[in-house]
Design a protein that fits this description.
Order of helices and strands: HEHEEHEH
Oligomer: single chain
Largest sheet: 4 strands, parallel
Distance between the termini: 44 Å
Strand order of the largest sheet: 2-1-3-4
CATH class: Alpha Beta
CATH architecture: 3-Layer(aba) Sandwich
CATH superfamily: BRCT domain
CATH topology: Rossmann fold
Shape: elongated
Length: 98
């Protein structure tokens, strides 16, 4: 059966195993990235996703964190308006354990 699926183009992927009881502050959280960051956004987004978070392009009441780089623009004002926790890169790195 697996060979048949592979012939159809299905490629199984193994997700990193997470130990039970080791949730991080990223687990189940929603992030928005804004401003100029020190690394490409897709790399930062991948760090968040690997730790159980989600990344959105717009701020809403469901947003948990806004990662604000240089010149954050209107997303910062929206995050302040709806009470989203705002982090700079130093605080983000601390959450990552770096």
């Amino acid at each position: 059966m697996i060979e048949s699926l592979e012939q159809l183009g299905v490629r199984p992927q193994i997700e990193p195993r997470r130990e039970q009881g080791t949730e991080s502050p990223f687990t189940g959280s929603t992030w928005v990235l804004t401003g100029t960051l020190s690394e490409p956004r897709d790399e930062i987004a991948e760090m968040i996703i690997q730790r159980g978070g989600k990344v959105s392009t717009s701020v809403s009441k469901k947003t948990n964190y806004l990662l604000a780089g240089e010149e954050p623009g209107s997303k910062l004002a929206k995050a302040q308006q709806v009470g989203v926790r705002i982090l700079d890169e130093a605080a983000f790195r601390k959450m990552l354990g770096r």
